[in-house]
Amino acid sequence: MKKTWKIMLCVLLTIAILGGVWMLSARVTSAQIYAALEELPVTNKTSEISAYLDRYFIDDYDEQALADAAASAMVTATGDRWSYYLSAADYQTYEESMNNAYVGIGVTITEDQEAGGLRIESVEADSPAFHAGIEVGDIMLEAEGKKTIEIGTSGTRDLVRGEEGTTVHLKMQRGDEIFELDVLRASIQTQVASCRMLDGNVGYIKINNFDARCFDETSTCIDEMLAQGAKALLFDVRFNGGGYKDEMVKILDKLLPEGVLFQSEDYAGKKETDTSDEACIELPMAVLVNHDSYSAAEFFAAALQEYGWAEVVGEKTCGKGNFQTGFQLSDGSLLNISIGKYYTPQGRSLTDLGVTPDVEIEYDDETYARLYYSQLEDADDTQLQAALRILTDKIS
To answer: What pLDDT is recorded for position 35?
Structure first.
């Protein structure tokens, strides 16, 4: 185990030092990296520390945890907030989130120290949790007899997820009521896009992320709103963490006329440009953004804004303009590092700048939280109301 740990740490450190030599493209495999590193002498600070720990450290320690911590620290030390390391277990969860599918009960959770458990942030429609009566705001106190506040979100997630068709035993709290229940595990497909008609025949389309199935679901929503007689479209990408740029580009292609949609340049200077054909949707449009609109969500809003196709309403976005690629290591963990930059149709970088809305409306922390937890009514959502006024004025 210690030998494997030493090799892994040396590999990661060498990768960090050599940078561009090994970050050639997503096609570079861990096997290729290891083969090349076999020819290099293993003499660096990491191997020295490993040797001293092996020889002199008085207590036992978790070698895998140490390796994961060291790997994460090395990536963090690059200063790039968008590059990161994932352990093998975390990588599996990450893949599930990118696929918008997993086996579980259909909830998202966050730690709530004051409540002494994990708070339910969202419940998927028609999920096992939904049918079991679990509600947003409930506190998950225990999973399979283990206190969730002690094992954390990751440990709880591992217990709640499992084989399809089996059940998980939960202890929950709602207000002063504490209750226990068994919830069936099932294959869950998280909803990527949803839509509804607002007053004035404004079609509202909420895009949660740009991961798998985003184009298909968003395109279906657009078509559904048009079929219902929408005279304008309002896209909501607030709290959208981004995703696959190809999904975003396909949506922009459906909306925008002929021209450049998106540009990128990698570490080697290779440039790529995505373009649109003549087909487009000529309706008034607006996009809602906030500080937690990231990456693809930002470039989606920027493209519509630069074309003059939509007005952007809300808060200045995050400013994630780099793109990353992942290198899976031999133990199943993942090294994800920035290898290039994205640009808007007009060639602007959004790195650390973000998208500045045409109409800026800031929310205080309380309102921001209510919006995040879907507890903000349309009438109280001043960002949405401002976008509605813009669109209804254009319709009339």
So the answer is: 52
